[in-house]
Amino acid sequence: MRLTEIFRLVWLNLASNKFKVILTSTGIIVGSATIMLVIAIGTGGREEVAEQFKNLNAGAIDITYEYQGNDFGGGRPGGMSGGEASGGGMPGGGSMPGGGASMPQGGGGMPGGIMPGGRADFGAGFFGNFFSGGQEERNTERITLSTDDLEDILTFVPGVEEGCLSFTATSAVDGGELEESASYTIAGVQSNYAALSNLELAMGEFLNDDDDTYKEKVCVLGYDAAREIFGSVYDAYNGTVYIDNRPYQVIGVLNAMGSVSSGISPDSALFIPYETGLKYLAGNNVSPTLTVIAQDVKEVETVIANVETVLAESYPNAEFTISDAGSRMEAASASNDTLTMLLVCMAVIVFIVGGIGIMNVLFVSVKERTNEIGILKAIGCSRRDILAEFLLEASCTSLIGAILGVMLALGLTPALEHFGVTIALSVSGGVLSLVFGVLTGTVFGFYPAWQASRMIPVEALNHE
């Protein structure tokens, strides 16, 4: 039998049983739609992770301290003046972690004295303070990371490129088109924060060192904050906002970032100079984040270990939270991959169920069409012809289901996006859904088709 005649027979059988074909392919419809959406959600998830962390430097390391209420080691131990130091290096030989330079002589050590271990008589000053009542003060003193800590890390930790301090606070903001004050995240940052976080300006300029030094009341608005407060980016520039009832001039507006940097969402935040924020907003209750950039991403773990060593010299019994952007990216990617794998497993199960459905229907179809098979064999059709006919029926049924599944996925996409799911549809996803659908129908339809091809013509013709 010619191939065209086989296709004609397949078409006639499918066309005469449209409703049965749709019901048979239900599992394939669901499976194909699931596969296409799985690929789209997985791709969208990866894009969302990349978007979320696009303004994070892969070598960024964030250091924070959470006040526990009764923390020993609350301040920088000291007692020796800088002038008394004769070689204030790190313990055990005077060099910093990783083979860095030793501490400068004279007054170049930590504020208030040299680092612990610089002199043998340091213990006298330290333990003298300890037993003279200093313990109670240190137990209740807050640890606040400062520019001194940043300078220590930049100076004594090898492989650190740059760093900055930042903090966040929530404050009432008024001005622009706001009818009443609204609560916004206020970020106190240093001038190099934009460069470290890869922030881009839509217009204006970012904060500079003079703004920080002179505690200027200026600010830079995130893209969403500018539109919410002033109605547009252009109206926001050179405008005035009132943060905690104090006027701040808007000197710049950021591009839309849609991501998070050092715990700050740039789009909805207002950025002010770090020292200005300390003076007018945070005061002594600030818990800043110290961010440093490792020169080599592969050496991040080593840099973190060295940072911990330097901080331990300044705050012997304090525990700091240290995290790097690379780990956060990997964790987010791993979560997305896990979700994608779960969805793929679900799609595979649906395909198996759909394939079993096709197999069962074909078994019934073979039994119902036994006489037809006998007639075909009697007029000269080979086993290969019978096998091809039933196999093509199974494949075409699953192909129809796969096409309907792709259409279902396209229809569900707007609904899923409405609930905040990031979906990135692709042609490759649709093609893969069709391939999976046809493959499932072919695999599960083979055995019933093989059984049909093995029938004996006389028995098939005498079947009632």
Describe the protein in words.
The protein is of the alpha+beta class. The chain folds into two domains: 3-52 and 330-462, no CATH class; 60-71 and 144-324, no CATH class. It has 16 helices and ten strands. The protein has helices at residues 3-15, 18-24, 26-52, 122-140, 147-156, 193-196, 209-213, 223-230, 233-236, 274-282, 300-314, 325-368, 370-378, 383-418, 427-453, 457-462; strands spanning 60-64, 160-175, 182-189, 201-204, 218-221, 240-243, 246-254, 269-273, 289-294, 321-324. Strands 2-3-8-5-7-6 form a six-stranded mixed β-barrel. β2 and β3 (182-189) form a beta hairpin. α5 (147-156) crosses α11. The longest helix has 44 residues, at 325-368.
Give the ordered list of helices and strands. Answer: HHHEHHEEHEHEHHEEEHEHEHHHHH
Number of helices: 16
Q: Report the principal-axis shape.
A: elongated
Name the beta content range. Answer: 5-15%
What is Rg?
A: 35 Å
> What profile does the largest beta sheet have?
6 strands, mixed, barrel
Task: Write a short abstract of this structure.
With 464 residues, the protein is an alpha+beta fold.
